[in-house]
């Protein structure tokens, strides 16, 4: 090959690299800090709180999202986390606790070192469109209180929020009527997939709103399974993390057969995923 041809080939390769560099980089990313929603291990946590945290830390998990503290105070929770090299960015807190005991919940969260208080669900008798308007007001109001303490409110979905009522999707009301500066969304990937909705449509319509994900997989028959053993295309979803605003990835399984085996399987699948 002549010198001119060599330089031409090198120049073309450099240009292709420059044009495609960001894409190549994006396709080489991994989730570095995998979290766990501890509802998955609620039985294990009830039997051995500190030991369960230590065991999931040994698997490689780094971020814990709590769903109850099993009688432990904030100092004891923080100590157990520290002893295992863990942190807790978020906790699920029932709606009634937000409405009736917010100050104490904020104080506990600050002591543990959390950033988000997440409402995990809504009572069945509070799911009318009027209720959703009121829930948005509650989330905003609680979000104001949280902001003063350096925290943020969050909301976690199931599938019922996507069931059309009176021509509206209730989840849309929550997104439209909550202040992005006060309320973040924690998108449960199993439940939105179970509703037949593409998560990416919400990422593009509401960029920056989805600070947290629940990583749960769904098989072809609709059953909840460990991450990586179902049909959800996590790489496609994760590739849009910057648009969505995702900061935390929490593995969860509502009813695992063997809790520790389930979370170990899911951890490996998430860590091995390249997007």
Task: Report on this structure.
α3 packs parallel to α4 and α7 packs parallel to α8. Mean pLDDT is 92; it is low at 1-26. By secondary structure, the protein is an alpha/beta fold. β4, α7 and β5 form a beta-alpha-beta unit. The chain folds into two domains: 1-30; 31-272, TIM Barrel (Alpha-Beta Barrel), CATH 3.20.20.150. Helices cover 48% and strands 15% of the residues. The protein has helices at 3-26, 42-47, 49-59, 74-83, 95-100, 102-112, 129-148, 170-177, 189-194, 199-205, 234-238, 241-244, 259-272, and strands at residues 34-37, 63-66, 87-92, 116-119, 152-156, 183-188, 212-215, 217-218, 224-225, 248-251. The strands form two sheets. The chain has an eight-stranded parallel barrel with strand order 1-2-3-4-5-6-7-10, surrounded by four helices.
């Amino acid at each position: 090959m002549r010198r001119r041809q060599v330089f031409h080939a090198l120049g073309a390769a450099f240009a292709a690299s420059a044009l495609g560099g960001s894409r190549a980089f994006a396709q080489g990313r991994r989730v570095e800090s995998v979290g766990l929603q501890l509802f998955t291990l609620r039985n294990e946590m009830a039997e051995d709180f500190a030991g369960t945290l230590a065991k999931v830390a040994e698997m490689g998990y780094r971020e814990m999202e709590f769903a109850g503290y099993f009688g432990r105070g904030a100092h004891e929770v923080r100590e157990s986390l520290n002893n295992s090299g863990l942190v807790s960015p978020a906790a699920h807190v029932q709606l009634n606790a937000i409405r009736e005991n917010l100050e104490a919940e904020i104080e506990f969260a600050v002591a543990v070192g959390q950033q988000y208080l997440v409402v995990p669900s809504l009572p069945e008798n509070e799911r009318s469109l009027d209720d959703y308007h009121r829930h948005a007001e509650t989330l905003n109001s609680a979000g104001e209180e949280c902001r003063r303490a350096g925290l943020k409110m969050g909301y976690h979905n199931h599938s019922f929020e996507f069931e059309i009522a009176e021509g509206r999707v209730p989840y849309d009301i929550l997104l439209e009527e909550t202040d992005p500066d006060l309320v973040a969304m924690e998108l449960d990937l199993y439940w939105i997939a179970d509703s037949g909705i593409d998560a990416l449509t919400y990422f593009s319509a509401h960029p920056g709103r989805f600070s947290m994900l629940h990583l749960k997989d769904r098989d072809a028959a609709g059953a909840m399974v460990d991450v990586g053993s179902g049909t959800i295309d996590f790489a496609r979803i994760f590739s849009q993390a910057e648009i969505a605003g995702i900061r935390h990835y929490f593995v969860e399984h509502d009813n695992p057969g063997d809790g520790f085996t389930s979370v170990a399987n899911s951890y490996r699948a998430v860590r091995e995923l390249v997007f």
